[in-house]
Each structure stands twice: as structure tokens, then as C-alpha cells.
Specification:
InterPro entries: IF-2B-related, IF_2B-like_C, Initiation_fac_2B_a/b/d, M1Pi_N, NagB/RpiA_transferase-like, R15Pi. By secondary structure, this protein is of the alpha/beta class. Helix content is 42%, strand content 13%. It has two domains: 102 residues, translation initiation factor eif-2b, domain 1 (Four Helix Bundle (Hemerythrin (Met), subunit A), Up-down Bundle); 189 residues, Rossmann fold (3-Layer(aba) Sandwich), CATH 3.40.50.
Length: 329
């Protein structure tokens, strides 16, 4: 537990569950954090505005300290704590509770609304090429199919974990005609595609897209072929703290996903690297589709500021910019 005012049981429990990954996934983490903030606002017995604000910042620090690199977590705190306003405790409490309700309502609608926006870019008879597995990207296809459009898909297998197989399965369940191709064949089949449709793990302030490794190479090839690249991502994936995607730390996964132990022994002494993500520069992206609409990548920073404030805003910090003591998580 951090030093500071007493925290609601819901805040401590949520923080522990996020830290241990009992709660995982961008939207799930964001919802849990917002609901914990609401519990803290409802339960605190702070009797002055200053004490109330201090308690809420403390709750925010406790939650933020669990997994600070999970983009949706600080965004949930920015949205809720950043809208705390008032001259007395009850007004402050009401503003926070209203903000958390608005945020969770937005989460409820986000993927459905995003799908409708993305579907507007897909015409009847179009073929999309996909990479990896993204529920946001699939929501665009599902909405297009729901509008009565006939859609086909070229699905990259997406090694080393073959997430493309999941995408292929879900597209077939929608009634989409699917062709599965090996990753290295993507350039060949781009001539048959009308769009490249991918998701994102996070999006930087300059519109750079961090997504499954292989996305950037696909985008470069698509641009050379004249195939537009659409990125589908809920706004909780926007990363106000990151000016460009190249400053995001890229996760390196276990080498066993790439090569089995016996095969490695046969080859001999080699280095194996298995980066999980890469960065697609904004110049290769035609549109970023969110539940708030579609944006050219260079305009995404405006949406970030509208939703989450200036990129440096951290409403869980003390006025002097300190973050308090470290979390025990």
C-alpha cells in the first residue's frame, strides 16, 4: 500500500488484480480503473476539497503504479481524474462520478461505433488484407457485412504465433470468404486487396502505430502498391505520453516461439530475437479509425488532447509534480 490517505477496498483489490494480470486487456483494465476511481469518490470521508482531491490523486497513483506502460490505464485516469472540478466536496464527487459514468458508457459503445465508422470505408465487393488478430479491425468487417456488403479477406498467418488463424476463423463465422497466406506472400497478394486493415496496440501522438511485428513492412509494401492502410483502434489505445512510436519499448518474446530446442541444437550457436511489435510511421497510414470518427494520423494528437488533456497531464500527481511513494505491486 502507498503512503497517503486511506484507500477504498475496491481500489486496493483492483490494483492488485491489475498488477497480477488477473485483470488484463486494454478495455478491461480501463473499465476496472475507472470503476475503482468511482468507488473511491463515493466512499471517501474527506471533509474539505483539498482532502478530497488529495485522496483521489492517491488512489490514482496506486492504480497507475501497477502497470504504468499499459496505455489504457493512464488514459482511464486522465479521463476521470482530469474532469474532477468544483469548489466543495459534493461538487467534486459529483463531477468525478459523472466522468467515470461517461467513460464506462463510452467503453460500452466504443467497438460498435468504431465498427460503423470503419465499415463506411469498405465498399460492397471489397477485399481486405489483415495482419494478426484485432477485434477492432474485425468490428469494421462485421459492421460492413451487417450492412449487406459482400466482403472477402486475405489473411496473413502472422507468425510465430499464427494469430491469423484466429482472424480467419472469426471472419468465416461472419460469412466472409477467406484466403490464408504465408506472411512472406503478402506483397504478391496486395494486388488483389482493396484495403489493408489492422489494429493497434498503441498509437503515438504523431500518429505512429505500434502493432504486431510485420505491420510496418506490410504498410510499406501496401503504399508502394497503392493500397490504402486503415488502422482500427479504440481511443483507449492512444498514447499521449509518447511523442513518436519509436520511443515505445518493444517487448521481446521468448525464442522458443521461433525455434524448438532440438532444431536450435542442430543448427549450433545462434542468436534468436523475437520482437512482438514494430512501429509503422504515420506517413504509411491513410486513416486511423476510432469510435470518435476517422482521422489522418497527423490529426490524432488533437483527439488525444480533447479526450485526455495535454500530453503531459497526469492528474494523479501532486501539484508539485511528485507521484508519491512507489506501489507495493
Amino acid at each position: 500500500m502507498t503512503d497517503g490517505p486511506p484507500l477504498a477496498e475496491a481500489v486496493e483489490a483492483t490494483a492488485d488484480d491489475i498488477a497480477t494480470m488477473e485483470i488484463r486487456g486494454a478495455a478491461t483494465i480501463a473499465r476496472a480503473a475507472a470503476e475503482a476511481v468511482a468507488e473511491q469518490a463515493a466512499e471517501t470521508d474527506a471533509d474539505t476539497p483539498a482532502a478530497f482531491e488529495r485522496t483521489m490523486r492517491h488512489a490514482g497513483r496506486r492504480l497507475y503504479g501497477t502497470r504504468p506502460t499499459a496505455v489504457s490505464l493512464p488514459n482511464a485516469l486522465r479521463y476521470t481524474l482530469g474532469r474532477m472540478a468544483g469548489d466543495d466536496v459534493e461538487t467534486l464527487r459529483s463531477s468525478l462520478l459523472a466522468a467515470t459514468t461517461a467513460f464506462t458508457d463510452r467503453l460500452d459503445r466504443a467497438q460498435r461505433d468504431l465498427g460503423r465508422v470503419g465499415a463506411n470505408r469498405i465498399r460492397d465487393g471489397d477485399t481486405v488484407m489483415t495482419h494478426c488478430h484485432s477485434t477492432d479491425a474485425l468490428a469494421c468487417v462485421e459492421a460492413a457485412v451487417g450492412q449487406g456488403k459482400e466482403v472477402s479477406a486475405i489473411v496473413k498467418e502472422t507468425r510465430p504465433r499464427n494469430q491469423g488463424h484466429i482472424t480467419a476463423t472469426e471472419l468465416r463465422e461472419m460469412g466472409v470468404d477467406v484466403t490464408l497466406v504465408v506472411d512472406s506472400a503478402a506483397r504478391r497478394y496486395l494486388d488483389d486487396a482493396d484495403h489493408v486493415l489492422v489494429g493497434a496496440d498503441s498509437i503515438a501522438a504523431d500518429g505512429g502505430v505500434v502493432n504486431k511485428i510485420g505491420t510496418s513492412g506490410l504498410a510499406v509494401n501496401a503504399r508502394e502498391r497503392g493500397v490504402p492502410i486503415m488502422v482500427a483502434a479504440q481511443t483507449i489505445k492512444l498514447h499521449p505520453d509518447t511523442l513518436t512510436g519509436h520511443t515505445v519499448e518493444i517487448e521481446m518474446r521468448d525464442e522458443s516461439e521461433v525455434i524448438a530446442d532440438d532444431a536450435r541444437a542442430d543448427i549450433g550457436d545462434i542468436a534468436v530475437e523475437n520482437p512482438a511489435f514494430d512501429v509503422t510511421p504515420p506517413r504509411y497510414v491513410d486513416a486511423i479509425v476510432t469510435e470518435s470518427g476517422q482521422f489522418p494520423p497527423e490529426s490524432i494528437v488533437t483527439l488525444m488532447r480533447e479526450l485526455f488533456g495535454e500530453s503531459a497531464d497526469r492528474p494523479w500527481e501532486e501539484p508539485d509534480g511528485t507521484t508519491g511513494s512507489a506501489s507495493s505491486a
